[in-house]
């Protein structure tokens, strides 16, 4: 009780430490290569494309952290629990598997290798070099992730300032020394069809930051508790302050990277991804010194992100499966990420797109429901109708994004043709918007007409749900559905 009374506010130093930590956790592999690629693809349409990108890559991650804080959830499972036990478990495992060991975490090693190591090794030795590099990379990730309460010290105080210095050096060389910012106005056409607001919005999926926000939100809340911020209301306000500071900085970095991508059209080709484009930019402005700077930047950024990814995954599953625990999940995650990273960056990106098209609409629905918590609480009917309706376009978009060897199968072609003809906004992959709206509004109307509670205080339902998850609720057949709502930490 004494700590609760004394620890009511963060110090300025703690704000800076947490803000730096959050920035470093988000700014990783995708943040280095995808804004550059967006700038090259958008060309003269870079301004509307940037707005779309900022929504999914900046605003959504911040709202995800706030949703975790506002609902007092200590995991994705708790956030998604009102939509049903099975969906909550699927959402937790699928999202964290994507972030922790299937795509995002292996991508941090593969991307930093291609940008920071591959230019310096002899041709033909890339596979063995990737094997050695990824082993060292995930060995460091494991060591720095063993004690998550020390993450602010490792990430915020040591690695992140180095990254910022490197980024500032790049922008000074491009915009001040060379003065190439003036060429932005001369770029008048897009280099890729559809490179507009919607294109930027969808490109933001590749950063996986909205998904990561649901995991990092747990880490940030845990760090706040470690600093003694124990009241939910104060934590939410601190999350907003820390998030605005770190995500504002990240937005500025994104803008600079996108502008570099646009400027690069004057002296290099349009690449299929941002890795080689970034290397070409650095070589153009600083020669081999730039290549070395980029190598250090990529490795530092990707390592800090990898720490956050595997820690969040291991923490959440460690809480959900306490008999296994955080430490064993951490070993498992780092090992799997190491193995998958050795398939290479191109394969990882190609396979991740359908999964992101499935998970992102569901994540956006969960974030919106969490933000509405003061008004709807964890109302089961609203959660289930919203998620149920959103799941339909999410599945269709995932099918649409399948690799060619699957997309060309007759079954998937028939589904894709049907969706193209009859589903609104399917052709631009924004079909989840009307479905989500119908599910949310319809669920609220049903709940209102049937007299269901909209209270945000879920304390009484928390114990019922805990018994249900542990199996005790099986012997309580008289418990109504409305009584088995979501948990609240």
TrEMBL record:
Q: How does it sit in the membrane?
A: Multi-pass membrane protein
One GO CC annotation:
plasma membrane
Q: Where in the cell is it found?
A: Cell membrane
Q: Which GO terms describe its molecular function?
A: L-isoleucine transmembrane transporter activity; L-leucine transmembrane transporter activity; L-valine transmembrane transporter activity
Chain segments annotated as transmembrane: 15-34, 46-66, 86-104, 128-145, 157-177, 210-230, 242-265, 285-313, 325-343, 349-369, 381-402, 422-447
Q: Which UniProt keywords apply?
A: Amino-acid transport, Cell membrane, Membrane, Transmembrane, Transmembrane helix, Transport
Disordered, as annotated region: 469-489
Q: Does the keyword Cell membrane apply?
A: yes
Q: Where is the composition biased (Polar residues)?
A: 477-489
Q: What GO biological process terms does the UniProt entry carry, in alphabetical order? A: isoleucine transport; L-leucine transport
Q: Enumerate the InterPro entries for this protein.
A: Brnchd-chn_aa_trnsp_Livcs
PANTHER family registered for this protein in UniProt: BRANCHED-CHAIN AMINO ACID PERMEASE BRNQ (PTHR30588:SF0), BRANCHED-CHAIN AMINO ACID TRANSPORT SYSTEM 2 CARRIER PROTEIN (PTHR30588)
Annotated function:
Component of the transport system for branched-chain amino acids.
Q: Which family does it belong to?
A: Belongs to the branched chain amino acid transporter family.
Among NCBIfam families, the record links this protein to:
livcs
Q: What is this protein called?
A: Branched-chain amino acid transport system carrier protein
Q: Which organism is it from?
A: Lacticaseibacillus thailandensis DSM 22698 = JCM 13996
């Amino acid at each position: 009780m004494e700590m609760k009374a004394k620890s009511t506010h963060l110090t300025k130093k703690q704000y800076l430490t947490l803000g730096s930590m959050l920035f470093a956790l988000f700014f990783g592999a995708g943040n280095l290569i995808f804004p550059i690629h967006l700038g090259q693809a958008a060309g003269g349409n870079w301004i509307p494309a940037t707005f779309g990108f900022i929504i999914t890559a900046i605003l959504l991650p911040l709202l995800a952290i706030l949703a975790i804080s506002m609902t007092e959830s200590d995991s994705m499972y708790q956030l998604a629990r009102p939509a049903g036990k099975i969906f909550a478990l699927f959402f937790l495992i699928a999202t964290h598997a994507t972030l922790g060991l299937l795509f995002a975490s292996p991508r941090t090693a593969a991307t930093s290798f291609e940008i920071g190591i591959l230019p310096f090794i002899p041709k033909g030795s890339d596979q063995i070099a990737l094997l050695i590099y990824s082993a060292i990379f995930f060995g460091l990730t494991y060591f720095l992730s063993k004690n998550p309460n020390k993450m602010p010290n490792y990430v915020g105080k040591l690695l992140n300032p180095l990254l910022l210095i490197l980024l500032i050096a790049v922008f000074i060389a491009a915009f001040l020394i060379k003065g190439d910012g003036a060429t932005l106005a001369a770029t008048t056409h897009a280099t890729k069809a559809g490179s507009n607001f919607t294109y930027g919005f969808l490109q933001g999926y590749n950063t996986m930051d909205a998904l990561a926000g649901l995991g990092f939100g747990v880490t940030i809340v845990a760090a706040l508790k470690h600093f003694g911020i124990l009241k939910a209301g104060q934590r939410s306000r601190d999350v907003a302050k820390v998030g605005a500071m770190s995500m504002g900085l990240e937005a500025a970095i994104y803008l600079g990277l996108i502008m570099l991508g646009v400027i690069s059209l004057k002296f290099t080709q349009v690449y299929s991804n941002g890795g080689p484009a970034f290397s070409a930019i650095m070589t153009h402005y600083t020669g081999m010194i730039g290549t070395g700077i980029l190598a250090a930047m990529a490795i530092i950024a990707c390592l800090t992100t990898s720490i956050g990814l595997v820690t969040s995954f291991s923490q959440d599953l460690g809480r959900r499966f306490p008999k296994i625990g955080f430490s064993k999940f951490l070993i498992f995650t780092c090992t799997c990420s190491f193995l998958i990273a050795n398939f290479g960056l191109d394969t990882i990106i190609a396979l991740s797109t359908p999964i992101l098209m499935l998970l992102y609409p569901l994540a956006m629905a969960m974030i919106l429901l969490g933000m509405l918590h003061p008004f709807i609480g964890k109302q089961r009917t609203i959660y289930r109708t919203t998620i149920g309706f959103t799941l339909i376009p999410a599945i269709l978009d995932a099918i649409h994004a399948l690799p060619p060897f699957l997309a060309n199968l007759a079954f998937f072609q028939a589904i894709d043709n049907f969706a193209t003809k009859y589903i609104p906004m399917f052709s631009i992959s924004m079909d989840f918007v009307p479905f989500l709206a119908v599910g949310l509004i319809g669920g609220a109307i049903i709940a209102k007409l049937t007299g269901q509670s909209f209270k945000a205080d879920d304390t009484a339902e928390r114990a019922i749900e805990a018994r249900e998850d542990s199996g005790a609720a099986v012997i309580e057949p008289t418990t109504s559905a409305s009584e088995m709502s979501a948990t609240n930490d």
